[in-house]
Amino acid sequence: RTSSITINYEQRAKALQKAKEDGGFRSAIHSVCKGNILFWINHFCWIYEPRREQYESLGYKEPHLLFTTWDYQDEFIKWICERIDRGEDGLTEKSRDMGISWILCTVFLWYWLFGGSGNDFLIGSRKEEFVDKHGAADALFPKIRYLLYRLPHWMLPLGFAKKKHDFYMRLINPENGNYIKGEANNKFFGTGGRYKAVLLDE
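User: That's the sequence. What structure does it adopt?
Assistant: Structure tokens below.
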């Protein structure tokens, strides 16, 4: 696993450098990412693992990890995308350290970023602090922000500005109008809006 991480890091570094120098390559990479979520994740996404024993066991010296998916994660990502595209429900039972919360946040961000207008999402949990809380690595919105702000600047939506489009429990894409909204669980959860998909976490 450590050797594959090293290879992935080198591939990412080469792709980022070429994209920085070559506008045509940058445009081509953007198109590939738009059409292939697994390519996008494995070339541009990161995850945050604050537990030192965990990230050191994987060969990292700091808590910022390349998001390199396992086979079971690939299948789960495809399954989630199928549910979203077909407008079907899906129930997932998960154990800890499977990366499911990170995957779901990443999938929603991919649609928000690369999808056309109408890719609006609602995410919720049993408590508001599990949806969005500054500095809380286990909340959902901080995960989405972490993913977003570690992308290369040319991959961000045209016209995106943090102060104008990143709010408490709401993230707006000014280029296509998509948004991701957060809400704590309540008896009116999910009412008053139309969404591409809704995530209700534990």
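Residues 81 and 107 are 7 Å apart (CA to CA).
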